[in-house]
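Holo prediction. Input below; ligand is DGJ.
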Amino acid sequence: MITFDRENEVFYLNTDRTTYAMGVWNGEKLFHRYWGKRLVNRLGKTDLNDCVWRPHVADLGDNSSDVLPFEYSTYGNADMRFPSAEFTFADGSRVSNLTYKGYEITDGKPALDGLPSTYCEVGDKVQTLTVHLEDALQNVEVVLSYSVFEQLDAITRNVKIINNGERLLLDSAMSATVDFYGSPERELLHLDGSWARERHITRQPITPGNQSVNSRYGCSSSFHNPFIALCDKNADEKHGNVYAFNLVYSGNFTAGVERNPYNGVRAYIGINPTNFQFVLEKGDSFQTPEAVLVYSANGLGEMSRIYHKLYRTRLCRGKYRDSERFVLVNNWEATYFDFNEDKIVEIAERASKVGIDTMVLDDGWFSSRISDDNGLGDWYENRDRLPNGLEGLAKRINALGMRFGLWFEPEMVNPGTELFKNHPDWIIHTKGRKPSLNRHQYTLDYSRDDVCDYIIDTLSGILSRANIEYVKWDMNRCMSEPGSAFWDGAHQGEVMHRYILGLYRVLETITSRFPNVLFESCAGGGARFDAGMLYYMPQTWTSDDSDAVERLKIQYGTSMAYPFSSMGAHVSAVPNHQVGRITSFDMRCNVAMMGQFGFELDLNKCTDAELETAEQAIKTYRKLGEVFHKGDCHRLRSPFESDICAIEFVSEDKNTVILTVNCSKPMPSAPDEYILLEGLDETAVYTVEGTDRRFGGDYLMNVGWHYVNNADSKTEMTVFKKV
Ligand code: DGJ
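Structure of the complex:
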């Protein structure tokens, strides 16, 4: 696990398959030494000749430390690269320089104060190393923490900065930086998109200079995701080195790489330094979010499986981490704002007959909310629509044998509401500047405790009085004119981070107060699909794009870092509301079923054949959901590279295998395709469920499953059972 070789002064962080090593140089500096496949041999003593790629220019006494692999490097010394942290000190100086002071190794993993993080349970092989660095002149301590999940093959990092000196300003603090020794052939993979097109895979060469993805939107955003991977140029799903970084954080982030003239690459991930500045008085400290680092020697597939298992079992929490979740119908695309109690019950009645167990009432149930320009903040029922209130509606839904779920957007306020009239100062804004509206709304200032307490009380009241068993927590705008009326001028640079801390406090309080409620997060679709939110809510609405073909790409890209068990996925009506495409009901079910299965349409408008398909699909999902959500996922064909998307799921006990193949458009005289399965027992025989066909595991992995992409909306879900 974690060891310190005293003779050579090298730290080893070993998981089952990987090693991460750091060395102390001259009793003084902490250098990154190695990250990759588990080392068999020990490293020698850290000296400049074997730990830098240009030993002839590296000299700590000279001005050439710009090529040294610092484990955590601050601004102002001779390392000119992207700094791990930056300070402005009381004397006006911005220069800092960290030296090594000592370390501790402990069993287990402490929680992070006020921030989400992965955790361990009794019996897990997890240890934590804390390394202490210090800027002696300014009396600042920097504590680097590394937790090693031995069996899960992941390492987490976070940093705590403690000011023991005069008041200082913390201008930036990355959660992790890693210096790679000369790696020009690597590529940078990240997940980008937009509203309704989230987390498409982008891969680009690492060129000289700085390349990064960022959010300054106040949330992790649909435009970029706090995830990057450095991959060998030829790395694919099964082969090649991959070094991945994911931030457990839901606010502004930066993640990127800087390549220097000598082909050394520094990777970094952390809170975005733009509009970030924390005041640390003497004795104050700052805690960065956690970064989760995963290395795979066997391509992107293995990297994703490591993240999936870690997040599914040691990031998500609560009752619904392991227990079966709900099959729901949501009225949003069925009615938008045009509904009343009877209409919702009508949708639920039909839904219950095909086996749907939860009716979710979306936006528009409260105060003056009859369109998207008013009502947010005034959280009481609109009695014209719901004459019997939420309690009455919930009772009618429960009488159908269904659960009742409800939509909220608790971080927002519309200007026409009582809440805004009573508390115009409760919004994110900058004094003297007109706050911009976005979707006609302002963002509530969650950096303030009074605002957070008000929201906790308001939501708790509603969740206590009606039988609400599911909550969709939405957030539909990015933040502009960031600032707060509560904090004085010196602390305005803290507001964006304090907002996220406030949000986490609200979520922690509400989710622990209502442990039986299943919470799903959402942000204008999937604009806050990140590991931070998954700590509080085990599933996220993946995208407002419910078109089955578009969803293939969105879900495939999302699965790079996040498990299918975390992806809300619904069957919606055709022509699809976002892109106008018509796909078969079968295909819509097969694509949605890989995630947290649900429906987003009025089933009263479906044909008998569609209702029959829905009923069958729900039965199949109840039988196979565990395999999609707890099994190993193998991405076999990428929808970004061809018209075929093939994803395979292998159950935990390895006895059941599901192969899903969906095509985005057919080809005339299509060629024969053979899709090679993965992760099977090559000595075993598998039967194809519902047929008398039998295949050897070796055959399926070496010859493959025959497929012809010759029909529109072609969709296959094949279940193999080990004999
Ligand atoms: C955005 C969400 O992504 C949708 O599913 C829906 O809940 C709307 N907001 C409601 O305003």
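The mean pLDDT is 96. That is the main takeaway for now.
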